[in-house]
Queue: 2 jobs
Job 1
Amino acid sequence: MFGTIISVVIAIAVAYVILRIGLSIFRLLATPLPEPPPAGELRKVKLNFRCSTCGSEVRMTVATDEHPDPPRHCMSEMDLLRQSD
């Protein structure tokens, strides 16, 4: 009799913990994404560019746009090497 009561109490406690974890996961999924920053404000980016003429490389870490125009070097636009997320 006493063992049955302990088992029921433990089962209720485990069910409560599982319910709380599930609700917190749903709450995280239901949170909307933040609004993008206003135009002109700097955003974090990770872009690597290389000059096809001389081989100089540049890493861009902040820009006013998520997909900025490539910088110019040796009078021509640099080539995008990779874009890290």
Job 2
Amino acid sequence: MTLSTQFITMLSMIGMGSLFGAMFDTYQRFLKRPKRKQWIVFFNDLLFWAIQALLIFYTLFLVNKGEIRFYIFLALICGFAAYQSLLKGIYLHLLEWIIQSVVFIYRLVKKALRLIIYEPIVGLIQLVVMIILALGRGLWTLVQSVFKILRFILKVIFAIVKKISLIFWRLLPKGLKKSVEKLYNRLAGNFKKITNFFGKWLTKWNKRKK
């Protein structure tokens, strides 16, 4: 390994140590350990350390083809210590500002979409439903009114027909009246027999089903 390669490796590992410190603080900020279950914290920790190890090894592979030396660990520790002493406060303030900015933009966009899209659509649906209900009530009221008018007309017609029938009935000869009464009684008796027959048949059918 040449001297320039060693120098680049040292600088890269110092940078990775500082980056590790920043990523660790970011991880801690979003994890919120007291609110998480232990198995979730364990899984996240394992995944975090695996990713950090892969990033460090990949960086090392790029600068010196993956050769590990003792000073590499010292460089990582120096980078981490430099971050803790010099950059941590600045980074945490910047991280918090970014988080708050993203949350503010998200809420703003959500509110704007609600005002522009969601509420107009809901209002339009409510208006359509109200119109349909109003039309339905109006149509039902119209049907009821028409039914009442037809019922009244039929009552009038039936009363007129009844009076005319009574007049004709009074004008008929007595012999013809008797013939008509006999025919009526015979038809009524036959209708009653038919009704009784179907009633008995339905009763037997229901008993068979049971």
